[in-house]
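Weekly puzzle thread! Below is a chain. First person to post its structure in token form gets bragging rights.
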Amino acid sequence: MGHDEYYKDKTCIVTGANSGIGYALTEELLKRGAIVYMAGRNLKRIEKATEKLSVYSDRIHTVIVDVTIQEQVEKAIENTAEEAGRLDFLFNNAGVGGTLPFDKATIDDWKRIIDLNLWSVIYGVNVAVPIMLKQGFGHIVNTSSIAGIVPPPFQALYSLTKFGVTGLTESLRYEYKEKGLHFSTICPANIATAIFKKSIDGVVHNDVKIPDDAIPADKAAKQILDDLPKEKGIIVVPEELREWWLGYVFGKAEDGMFELAHERRESYNNYYNNK
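Winning reply:
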């Protein structure tokens, strides 16, 4: 089956769809012939996003949902499946970043990031699996991170949630393969999106610079959608960082991680000393 054929006329839900990877996935899915329900909690932002994709207005729908609230997630997915007649793809993409020293994190920080990055995925999977089992097909795609397979220093909160997403998705991948369900984990490295500028509490820091090595979100989306028909489990984005991940697995990246920890420690010490 060709890359485009895998998505043509398929019903997809994408959470966090108004910006970043979620928006890029939505646009690329529409280009490949899919029917996309763009999900987000901010009506104005979702409407603005759909306006930019108005050329696909016959195949694009909006869903207003706060993914940290179980009842809203259940209603959004169930209503979409009922309206469309099926649910072929669920992209659990909504999330927030979190890079800060462990001793500066509050319990409220932990709760916020776990609710948005992990519980939202659990809610989505929990309601989508029975629907997909009944129809005999479905592909659930959960956005983790490179920090969900390699634990960067100063990202304990973020990494915990993303390792959880990776573990959940990989386990279900093997559990449901024989029943016609597919599970994939997206593990992006630096992608040029606003996630770098937003802290765990939702505050936007416009002075924060997006890393120079960040790749465009549309390039990431193309790689992801090219890889999904191959039924890959863990999809590292960009692909060339897969070797770095495997190097970590086999103990060849520890020196670099300690160096990164040292650099970040100095950076944060300067930041907090100058506050």
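Puzzle host: Confirmed. Bonus trivia for everyone else. The mean pLDDT is 91.
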